[in-house]
């Protein structure tokens, strides 16, 4: 199916397609070099953290980093063979963030452990060790996805199965008895299924499943949604009956807000749908309608929380903390305040890896990992980290622009936007821009479900970007090429491509 | 650990982080310029071009052959498709080479077929018809350069 990367740079044989002399470069070597550089950065973080915490660099500080490097190299090799034209930037950028995450969590373990036990913290112990193990598993899963799915369009066949699974996953934690569903003590949010010591956060996987369905649905419906419209105030608004799906998703996300008490997830689902809708129809009116609906819903939830309380009470408290974090500095506002103080202590250059006190912040290993890291690497480090995230998102959107089929466009656009929105929700919450809601920072915060889901997301993006960047003439699908003269048959499988000037 | 070493490590880490960022940007940048040529639109679907490959000599003889299909009016105005050796299907169907979102176009509206270097337009039984300039297209009709093909509100032209 795939040409070996080495021979790909030779021009197309003459006579076949004279103008398709594509400089088809797979850029896998660039990926390898970037990957090694990323792991070097992670190793530098780990070493500096040990130097600060233990006053010496132990001989095995590199063990977690090297095992990470090994597994990232493994997926690099998988990509080299199975998706040779995939984007070269995605894996190294994700690897850097993942590596820093593992190193930071290990650094937290070190500072929590007794000074005399610090030296013999083994590779898989503590939060950092568990994160390392989860990373190995997640990367294996991502590689498995690349092996199983050779053409991203195949995913659309399972759209209905996936959306059913997704909805079941979303509502399960809310419906399960207290024994099996773990509740976050601070936010009272029901997001986890806990079975025999393991906790799974099904919402992370549900978001991927829902996104596949959104993309599939909108590919089928977008003509109706984008053509039939009424013009009002210079903006095309859709007809009333076409608003149905948007209202349904809005109701689902409100239900998530009410029953699971989690604003972030609800914002994530709704935002995902609205943006996929916008990508599909190119109508600004959908964004306006989406924003109005969401803000309306949020204000309503806040108002209900202030009057009747009940399921809306925790959301009301969150907004209260956001409006005035100093209102109850030792109570409800403690976590937010500690996060803000951490970021403030870091200043421009940070205290240095290992020299801060991130353990002062509650939940620093999950929700507040950004504040904890920010204290140590400062504004300059954090902005570099954000730029790396930005580049991941940009590459995803780039793949969406370049891929030739609509399903791939919507899926890649939606996937990269999901990363973006999730980052906005959690970093906005930590830095006090919006009310804080518990979301995981992709690839950075501790948690197996989030890591696995996000690596699956990256695998999907790799697959789509491979399809997007693959030269048109290199890999011909299995098509009977024996038809002699005359016009070719109807091209059912042919992809479409439209480029705007 | 002497404080000097720690300071160097701390600053060094941030510098390294930014070096990574700029290296990534460099790779993307090189990619962008390499892609500027390769991402040129080629309307030949995979594997089909070879079938018509033997028509090439005749095409060269004609001199001013059409190399581009340009959408001059309608929603997709400005879209350019580099012509290959394969036919171009036009319509609202997803698998058309040029997917036009036009209320007055059929799912499989028309197609452009190259024969001996000349492009022919052919109506595929559309509801509202295909027009070459003012004349309704009934059978395969040769398309001269620069003459508009009208499909619904969309207009297309062959350009050299």
Automatic annotation (TrEMBL), chain B:
Name of this protein: FHA domain-containing protein
InterPro entries on file: Cell_Proc_Reg/RNA_Proc, FHA_dom, SMAD_FHA_dom_sf
Organism: Plantactinospora soyae
PROSITE patterns per the UniProt record, alphabetical: FHA_DOMAIN (PS50006)
Domain FHA: 88-137
Bilayer-crossing regions: 6-28
Keywords: Membrane, Phosphoprotein, Transmembrane, Transmembrane helix
